Amino acid sequence: MFDWSGKSVVYVGAFSGIGFQVCQILMRKPLKNMVVCSRMENVEMLKKLQAINTDIRVSFVQMNLTDNSSIQHAVNSIAPIVGHVDVLINGVGVLADKDVETTINVNLTGLINTTLMMMPWMDKTQHGRGGMVVNIASVYGLEPGPAFSVYSAAKHGVVGFTKSMADEHLYSKTGVAFICICPGMTSTELMMNKRDMNWMKWVPHTDTIWNTVVDAKMQTPEDCAVNMVNAMEQGKNAGMYICSMGGVKEVVPPVHWKM
């Protein structure tokens, strides 16, 4: 069981959705610091977090995931606040397939750059003391997503990055565990706007597939967040978990090739 006592958590994501629900749950743990990184500050939501537990220091740091200099500036700002980072939650997601660059940059490239720039403050051989990186992917990072192939490709990239960074040799040196959470269909802002997303059908012949997505049953962000925290608390390096419809299931990907 992962011990949250005295830990410094950095959450990268919006002030809504599954990730922010996770933050609210974690604010009931004995943390030391909660740092929220996003493009825009939401003072009211930060106050809401702080009100859950006044013993935890809640801070906001501006970060634009599509701008490497912004990510580096954010990391440089976080270090004086926390000293070291124990848990990094990469929770940003955007469903905007027609804008290929934004979809890849936000869902994948920004996540990778944030993680690599944050690692010196987690790596026990540098400024850190080990810890955990939690990458929020999607079930569409495990299976094909023909309704939104670019989003699916980005999330497959998140899964591959997580699995690679969780290599036992790297873990033995850094002490940083990597886990990947793959939520199923969830009633976040990302998906609740799906009925107005006809522009998503920019790939020919996907109308029928998209209609299946529109009619799918969804879990609540609150239910998903509870299971995500349960998965985190297992503290298992290379752990991969599907959180869907009120349940959590560990995924063991098959090995197709090995050196």
Question: Topology of this protein?
Answer:
Layout: E1 8-12, H1 17-26, E2 33-38, H2 43-52, E3 57-62, H3 68-82, E4 87-90, H4 100-118, E5 131-136, H5 149-165, H6 168-174, E6 176-183, H7 189-192, H8 207-214, H9 221-232, E7 240-244, E8 247-250
Parallel strand pairs: 1-2, 1-4, 2-3, 4-5, 5-6, 6-7
Antiparallel strand pairs: 7-8
Q: How would you portray this structure in words?
A:
There is one protein chain. The protein is α/β, with parallel strands linked by helices and 259 residues long. Helix content is 39%, strand content 17%. It has 9 helices and 8 strands. The chain has helices spanning 17-26, 43-52, 68-82, 100-118, 149-165, 168-174, 189-192, 207-214, 221-232, and strands at 8-12, 33-38, 57-62, 87-90, 131-136, 176-183, 240-244, 247-250. The chain has an 8-stranded mixed β-sheet with strand order 3-2-1-4-5-6-7-8, sandwiched between helices. Strand 4, helix 4 and strand 5 (131-136) form a beta-alpha-beta unit. Helix 1 crosses helix 9 (221-232), helix 3 (68-82) runs parallel beside helix 4 (100-118) and helix 4 runs parallel beside helix 5. The longest helix is centred in the middle third of the chain and has 19 residues, at 100-118.
